């Protein structure tokens, strides 16, 4: 047999052909779909007409009572400036009695009856600025002219909120902390406030009717793989990590994971900006996250669960919240999720990419933007991806989905909001160690206890069922009223709730009797219904982790198959 000789140089070139082909393929121009959701239609409302002279008029100076905001310093200077400019003006200083995010019809009625103008002072917080701009817009709709004073790092927050409400709210920025503002800076700010209160309306501020924001283009700009990555990153459409380019072919393949039509609406209030998301838009972002088509029912249920619960303040907050997804039912095995060893760590495509997809949904389907309407001071690493399936097979108890009212065998996804871990690794099922860790955790509104199967089984051996474990935590995480009142959120959240002021639509978190107790009385700071238990992990040791999460929102996965 005749042998063929191949030179070493030719052999080397032949080896390079696949590499060159991959490089050329990577640099081919690709056409990708636009991942952005749809902004809602807005009913435009003019600003209230201004009084050019505030003499013999009443001006309310309103703010939420928030420690550390220092906005009262600015409001005091505004009162001085108003009195100097209009000697016969009447100034009424008013703290908003309910939490900053709560509607307050009694206060609005008082203001519209007694005031001819108002100034609303915001705190150095994205969520507070959003809500204070919201209440300013509401009062303008009630024909009371005003201006909101905000901190200069939050101008975009006020702008986006005003656009969402359809009211061209006037605002004046100041720097934080205002005590360090020069006399010239403070004078300029107070002059702008007065100007905002008395200057007649511009043509733009008189507009009425409906405004329909333009829909995003169907396609993003074409380019090479590298150019697509750079463009998506520059637009703020990613989580900072490389994405899978959402080509028409990949999105079409993703859509095969559900029987629902591409243009079907999944949610009309995707937070933070309450945009509308369709099945196709979910599929586009799912491709970007690295998901597989069979994950689509879970992804669609995730958007539904996210959109139906009010996550407005948590997503905007400077407190750096994040979200936990728990998957229950047969879908866990169908898509290959890991509920055992290293379930909360990297390595499983379904766990990781479904968790990542939620972050892309918040960004692209809800209009979230870091530094604009997502203002977490430090951010949160669990915001990248935190999706786990419950280890139902190794659990001695009914799953979380049953706690949420679903039947056995139903597949569901539950989203919790919160975002910080208490000390973990409580071996030997020691609930008292957990209790010591969570007793003084900030804003004691809820906890999700993640128990490894062995930890759950140790509790069963002690004669405790799931509810007994929850009851034990609830009864033994105790504080005195004095300690509870010292919590930073007591004035903002807890006391209003005790007085029957609903927060996020939630009532009866704590017994109303707590309100009149003496400082040395012992109370239970965790509402019983806000203590949740999920079994997850391998059966190597009885580990537990307590996470500061609450307010579950659950949706059926099966309806999206």
> How far is it from the N-terminal to the C-terminal residue, by CA?
61 Å
**Reading side by side through the largest sheet, how are the strands ordered?**
11-10-12-17-13-16
* Tally of DSSP helical segments: 19
The average pLDDT value, as a whole number, equals: 91
Q: Quick one: overall form?
A: globular
SS strand fraction:
15-25%
Class per helix and strand makeup: alpha/beta
Overall helicity: 25-40%
Low-confidence stretches: 1-22
Radius of gyration: 27 Å
List how many beta strands DSSP finds. Answer: 17
Quick one: biggest sheet? 6 strands, mixed
Account of the 3D structure:
- The protein has 561 residues and is of the alpha/beta class.
- Helix content is 36%, strand content 16%.
- It is built from 19 helices and 17 strands.
- It has a six-stranded mixed sheet.
- β4, α4 and β5 form a beta-alpha-beta unit.
- It is globular, with a radius of gyration of 27 Å.
Structural key phrases:
alpha/beta; single chain; disordered N terminus; 5-stranded parallel beta sheet; Rossmann fold; 561 residues; 6-stranded mixed beta sheet; 17 strands
Short description:
This protein is α/β, with parallel strands linked by helices and 561 residues long. Helix content is 36%, strand content 16%.
């Amino acid at each position: 047999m005749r042998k063929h000789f191949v030179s070493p140089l030719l052999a080397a070139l032949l080896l390079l052909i696949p590499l060159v082909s991959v490089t050329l393929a990577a640099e081919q121009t690709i056409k990708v779909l636009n991942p952005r959701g749809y902004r809602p239609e807005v009913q435009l409302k003019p600003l209230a007409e201004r009084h050019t002279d505030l003499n013999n008029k009443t001006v309310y100076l309103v703010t939420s009572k928030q420690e550390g905001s220092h906005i009262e310093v600015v409001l005091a200077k505004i009162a001085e400036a108003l009195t100097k400019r209009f000697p016969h003006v009447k100034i009424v200083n008013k703290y908003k009695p309910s939490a900053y995010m709560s509607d307050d019809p009694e206060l609005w009625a008082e203001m519209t009856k007694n005031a001819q103008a108002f100034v609303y002072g915001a705190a150095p917080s994205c969520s507070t600025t959003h809500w204070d701009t919201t209440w300013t817009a509401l009062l303008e709709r009630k024909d009371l002219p005003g201006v909101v004073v905000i901190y200069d790092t939050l101008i975009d927050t006020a702008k986006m909120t005003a656009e969402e409400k359809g009211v061209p709210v006037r605002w004046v920025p100041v720097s934080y902390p205002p005590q360090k503002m020069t006399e010239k800076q403070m004078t300029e700010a107070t002059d702008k406030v007065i100007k905002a209160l008395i200057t007649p309306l511009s043509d733009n501020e008189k507009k009425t009717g409906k405004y329909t924001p333009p829909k995003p283009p169907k396609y993003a700009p074409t380019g090479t793989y590298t150019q697509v990555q750079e463009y998506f990153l520059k637009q703020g459409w990613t989580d900072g990590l490389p994405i899978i380019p959402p080509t028409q072919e990949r999105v079409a393949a993703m859509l095969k994971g559900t029987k629902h039509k591409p243009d079907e609406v999944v949610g009309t209030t995707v937070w933070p900006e309450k945009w509308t998301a369709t099945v196709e838009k979910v599929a586009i972002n799912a491709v970007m996250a690295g998901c597989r088509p069979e994950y689509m029912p879970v992804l669609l249920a995730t958007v539904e669960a996210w959109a139906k619960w009010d996550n407005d303040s948590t997503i905007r907050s400077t407190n750096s919240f994040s979200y936990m997804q728990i998957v229950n039912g047969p879908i866990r095995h169908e898509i290959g999720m890991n509920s055992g060893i290293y379930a909360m760590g990297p390595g499983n495509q379904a766990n990781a990419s479904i968790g990542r997809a939620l972050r892309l949904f918040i960004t692209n389907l809800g209009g979230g933007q870091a530094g604009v309407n997502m203002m977490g001071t430090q951010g949160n690493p669990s915001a990248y991806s935190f999706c786990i399936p419950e280890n139902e097979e190794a659990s001695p108890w009914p799953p979380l989905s049953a706690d949420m009212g679903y039947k056995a065998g139903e597949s569901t996804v539950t989203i919790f909001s919160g975002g910080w871990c208490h000390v973990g690794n409580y071996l030997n099922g020691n609930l008292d160690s957990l209790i010591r860790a969570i007793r003084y955790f900030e804003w004691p509104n809820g906890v999700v206890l993640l128990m490894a199967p062995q930890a759950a089984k140790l509790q069963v051996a002690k004669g405790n069922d799931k509810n007994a474990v929850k009851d034990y935590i609830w009864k033994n995480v105790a504080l005195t009223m004095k300690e509870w009142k010292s919590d930073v959120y007591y004035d903002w959240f807890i006391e209003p709730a005790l007085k029957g002021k609903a927060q996020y639509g939630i009532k009866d978190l704590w017994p109303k009797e707590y309100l009149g107790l003496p400082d040395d009385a012992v109370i239970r700071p965790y509402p019983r219904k806000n203590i949740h238990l999920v079994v997850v992990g391998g059966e190597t040791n009885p580990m537990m982790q307590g996470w500061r999460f609450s307010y579950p929102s659950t949706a059926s996965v099966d309806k999206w198959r």
